Each structure stands twice: as C-alpha cells, then as structure tokens.
Fold:
Amino acid sequence: MTSVLYDAPGPRARRRERIGSVIGGVVVLGLLALAVRYADGRGLFAADRWDVLYDPPKNQTAADVWRSMVVVGLGATLRAAAVAAPLALVAGLALALWRTTRHAWLRAPAVVVIELFRGLPVLLMMLFALLGFGWSAFTAVVFGLAVYNMAIIAEILRAGLAALPAGQAEAAYAVGMSRRQTLLSILLPQAVRTMRPSLVAQLVVLLKDSSLGYIVGYAELLKSIQNNAQYFGNSYYVALFVVGAAIYLAVNLSLTRLAVWLQGRSERTAAPARLAEPTTARDSTVV
Structure:
C-alpha cells in the first residue's frame, strides 16, 4: 500500500520501527534513571531541600512563599504578556497589510521594520528602552515583547495571505470589490484562521520571553523565584525552580490546548459550508 508522498512501510519495516522504538524508550529510561541517581547522590531529594515549599525557615509561612511566586510573580508575568500581546497583534496586522501593498516604494519601509526588529534580540530592545529612553522596567519589558513579536506576527500573517489561492482575490475583483474590501472581508479572515496555531504558538513564546524581564529589574515569576532562593538560601534553588517550571508549563500548555480547541471549533464551523458548496454549485448550474 502506498500514499501520495511515500510508500507505506511493510511488515518488516514496521517490525524494525517497533524494535527501534523499544530500544529508544529503554535508552531514555536509562538516562532518566542515571539522572535521578545522580541527583539523589547530591542530596537533591532530601526533605530539607524542599521544606521551603511547606515549612520555610526565617519565620516565613508557606503561604508567603507561594503568594510571592503565584500571585506576585506570575501575576506580573501575565500582566506584561496581557499588555504586550494585543499591541503585537495589532501592530503585526498593520505591518502585514502594509507589506502586501502593490507599490514597492510603499512596501519597502514595512520590510525594513520587520527585518530590523525580527533580527534584534528581545533583551537588547528591553535594555534599550530601559537605559536609552529611561522607561520603567514594566514599560521596557512590554516594549521589547511587543516590538519583537510584532515583526514575527507580521511574517506569519503575510505567509497566510500568500498561501491563499489567487483565484479568490480575482473573483472578488470581478464582482466589483476594492482591494481593501477584498483584504479585510475575504483574504485576511482566512489567513488568520489558517495561521491561528502559529499565532497562538507565538503568543506562548511571548509569554516565555517575559522571563527576560528579571534582567532589567522587572519582578516577574523568574525574578520572584530568584529572590526567594537568595533570601532562604542557595540550597532551595532546585525546589523553587522546579515549581517555577511547573507554573510555566501549566500556563503554556493551557494556551496550547486553547489553540487546539479553537482550531477544532473553526474546522467544525467550516465543515457545513464545505459540504454545502457542491450542492450550491450544482443548483446554480441548473439555473
């Protein structure tokens, strides 16, 4: 049995794949066992390395530790992302439309802006806003996140527009629609729907890049973890960073699941329309 792009594996190939999967799984489990053994040998699983999470020293309570990470740290992370994400989406949409203009002399500035900010590190833009403009740490973080992701989102939307069949725009022009109407009413909604997983994935990147804010003095989640470790002692670094990693995973996986749900919902919404298209075409032909 063959498919369009490749030959389907036969019994022998499937047997080799199963053997390779078993060997790979055993190797991974062995490496994990070695890592656990090494960590245990260094005392990383000792109770006194984790009691900061339930019975911290220095007259602090567990509620204080968790509040500093979940409420203060994660709250600051989400606040920066919640401000930067809409700015990046709106500016990226404007740049994508600007770059699709027909006149090269109008399109050139948009290309320069996209390539410039896409090629600069996020941290460099945060430091430039903090030291060059004298802005606050929060504003510097939002500026760096918004400007960098603006350029990436513009490229994602431009790729979505370029992937659409040219016949759709030609049909819109044939019925008298202007270029602006065609872009906003026909092409752009389809491009956004097609590139929605990539857009959500970029928003996850934006959220993770907010951790760079601790370098410019913004008290986000990573900075909160670092402050706790410095206050309680270096022996608690592992426990606190494990909790921080779990928080980041929970938030980012939630966004990923949201993207999957939105994609499935849009496909279910579009399915009835696709099923109705042949009937509509056949009826119009008869008339």
Observations:
- DSSP finds ten helices and no strands in the chain.
- The chain has a mean pLDDT of 82.
- Residues 237-286 form the longest helix (50 residues).
